[in-house]
Design a protein that fits this description.
Radius of gyration: 18 Å
Number of domains: 1
Helix content: over 70%
Number of helices: 9
Shape: globular
CATH architecture: Orthogonal Bundle
Strand content: under 5%
Distance between the termini: 57 Å
Largest sheet: none
Number of strands: 0
CATH class: Mainly Alpha
CATH topology: Tetracycline Repressor, domain 2
Oligomer: single chain
């Protein structure tokens, strides 16, 4: 039975959304295609009707995950009081929910070291989304002439702090890392 083009597109979107969450939770090498497809409610056999390789799915899933993060950060910045957008982004990014739910969080913090080992085309997809994140920070830089360098530094600090806060066992140290990073980028 042949499915409509719309059905195939909807299925692909469902696979990407499910994989975005599963990959952030397990890591690129921590989960196989069969499990990724099972997570989307599908069988392994249909994978190649949608993607040419696991890396193609990974790239698209990371892009989708980063789009979610950008949207969440934009919303936080736009609802913050005037002049407090960047602070709202930092507070949201370093929030407890973001730290504790890697499967729904920033793909760079969850999968950055995996992406470093991937193809140039995958890195290019991730780089484009990273540029969007930097541009978002630039938007809320209050017209500073040094917005881009400050935005890159801020993003690097946020990502590094989140990775560190997730890595430690001690909740007290995790809180300290997040608070110091918030202060550093404010």
């Amino acid at each position: 039975m042949r499915y409509s083009r719309t059905h195939k597109e909807q299925t692909r979107i469902r696979i990407v959304a499910s994989a975005a969450e599963q990959l952030r939770a397990a890591g690129v090498n921590g989960i196989g295609v069969a499990d990724l497809m099972r997570g989307a409610g599908l069988t392994h056999g249909g994978f190649y009707a949608h993607f040419e390789s696991k890396e193609a799915l990974v790239a698209e899933s990371i892009s989708a995950a980063m789009e979610q993060t950008i949207s969440r950060l934009r919303s936080a910045a736009e609802t913050a009081p005037r002049g407090r957008g960047r602070r709202a982004i930092a507070e949201t990014y370093l929030g407890t929910a973001h730290r504790d739910h890697v499967e729904r969080g920033c793909a760079i913090a969850a999968l950055g070291s995996d992406v470093a080992r991937m193809s140039p085309s995958t890195k290019g997809i991730v780089e484009a989304r990273l540029e969007e994140m930097i541009a978002l920070l630039d938007e809320f830089a209050s017209g500073r002439s040094d917005a881009r360098p400050k935005s890159i530094t801020m993003l690097a600090t946020l990502v590094g702090a989140l990775v560190m806060a997730r890595t430690v066992r001690s909740k007290a140290l995790s809180e300290e890392i997040r608070e110091l990073a918030r202060e550093a980028v404010a």
